Amino acid sequence: MSPVRILVFLCVVLTLTYGSHYYLWSHLVRDVDLGSPLSKLATGLLIALAATMPIAMILVRVVSRRTIEPLAWVAFVWMGTLFLLLLSTAGVDLVRRMISLVAGDSLASPERRLTLARASASAALVLGGGLSVRALLSARVRDAVRTVRVSLSKFPETMAGYRIAQLTDVHIGPTLDRTFMEAVVRATNARNPHLVVITGDLVDGSVAQLAEHVRPLADLRARDGVFFVTGNHEYYSGADEWIAFLQTLGIRVLRNERVRITAPDSTDSFELAGVDDASAHQFGNGHGADYRRALSDRDPSCPVILLAHQPRQILAAQTFAPDLVLSGHTHGGQIAPIHWLVKLQQPYVAGLHQHSAQTQIYVSRGTGYWGPPMRLAAPSEIALIELHPA
C-alpha cells in the first residue's frame, strides 16, 4: 500500500474514531450537565478510551502478544461497546426528538429539557451496556457445533453421511490464545469428522508471536486429513511463514489446486479444491486466486468442493461450476446489525445457499471473532458439513 493510501486510511480511521466519541460525549456528557468534576472525569475517560483503539491496532503487530494483551482487551472491548452505545444513543435520540416534537411548548423550559436529556442518556447507557454484556458472554463459546446437511447430485452413495468439519475465522491473536485453540480442537475431534478444513483467517499476528498458540492444531484428527486455505488476515500476518508453519503441523495447504478424496475400499470419490484469498494478489510473491488452475480439466462426473475464504469468490468460480463452496470471512456480521453492511460487499453472509443450478455455498459465521470479543445475534460455530447424494 502506498504512503498516500496509508495516510488517507489513517485520516479516515481517526476521523471516524474521534467523531463517534464526540457524538457520545455530546449526548451522554455535555447535554446532561453532570457538573464540573463528573463532567471532566467522563470527558477524560472518553478521550483515553478513544486513544486505546488506534494505539492497540498499531502495536498488536509489532510487540509481543503478552505485552499487548491487557491493552488489547481494553481497546477491543471498548470498540464493540462503542458501536452498541452509538446505536443505542442514536435510537434513543430519535425517540427524544419525536417526543420533543409532539410535546411542543410543554418542554420549552430548560429544566424539562434537561430532565428529558438525562432520561434519554440513562436509557441509552442501559440499553447499550446491556447489549454489550450479552455480546461479551456470547463470544467465548468454544464448542458450538452446527450440523449442516448438504445434498449433492453427484455425490456417491457409498460416501453418504461423509462429515467435513469446517473451522474458519478463528483469529488467534491478542485476545484468543492457546486455551481457546485447544478447546476448539477437542470439540472438533469429538465429532469424528472424516475431513477437517480451515477456510482462512486463522491468525492475527506473526508466527513468532503466535506459533505456540496455534500449535494445538497438530492434534486435529480426521481420517482423510486437515486442509487449509489462506484468508486476508494471513496476508497481514506473513502468509508465507504461516503456510510453512502449518505444514509442520501436518496440515495440507491448498494453493490453487485440488486433491481427490477416495472412500476406503472403493473407487468412489470427490475432489477437494482450494484457492488463495481474493485479496492475495495484492501481496505479490506468487499469491493470488487462480480458479482455472484449481478447477479446470476435471472429471465432470466427480463432485468438487471448493474452499475459498470470501463468499464473493463464488462469482469468479461459478464458470467452473463447483458443486459446493465452503467460505467464511463474514462472521455472520458478528455484531448485529453489521450483517446489513456485510451484504454490500459479499453475496452471502451466513448459512447454506443455492447459488446456481450446479453450485451451493455454505458460509460459516466463524469459530472465533475479530477485534471486539463480542458476538450479537451471530453466534460462533464449528460447522459439521454432512454430505449426501441428492
Structure write-up:
The protein folds into two domains: 3-139, no CATH class; 145-389, Metallo-dependent phosphatases (Purple Acid Phosphatase, chain A, domain 2), CATH 3.60.21.10. The chain has helices at 3-30, 36-59, 65-103, 110-139, 178-189, 207-214, 232-236, 239-248, 291-295, 313-317, 338-342; strands spanning 145-152, 162-167, 195-198, 226-228, 252-253, 257-262, 269-274, 304-307, 324-327, 351-354, 360-363, 382-389. Helices cover 44% and strands 15% of the residues. With 390 residues, it is of the alpha/beta class. The protein has a six-stranded mixed sheet with strand order 1-12-2-3-4-5. The chain has a six-stranded mixed sheet with strand order 6-7-8-9-11-10. The mean pLDDT is 94. Helix 1 (3-30) packs antiparallel against helix 2 (36-59) and helix 2 (36-59) packs across helix 3 (65-103).
Succession of helices and strands: HHHHEEHEHEHHEEEHEHEHEEE
Count of discrete domains:
2
CATH architecture of the largest domain: 4-Layer Sandwich
Radius of gyration: 24 Å
Number of strands: 12
Question: Could you give the topology of this structure?
Answer:
Elements: H1 3-30, H2 36-59, H3 65-103, H4 110-139, E1 145-152, E2 162-167, H5 178-189, E3 195-198, H6 207-214, E4 226-228, H7 232-236, H8 239-248, E5 252-253, E6 257-262, E7 269-274, H9 291-295, E8 304-307, H10 313-317, E9 324-327, H11 338-342, E10 351-354, E11 360-363, E12 382-389
Parallel strand pairs: 1-12, 2-3, 3-4, 4-5, 7-8, 8-9, 9-11
Antiparallel strand pairs: 2-12, 6-7, 10-11
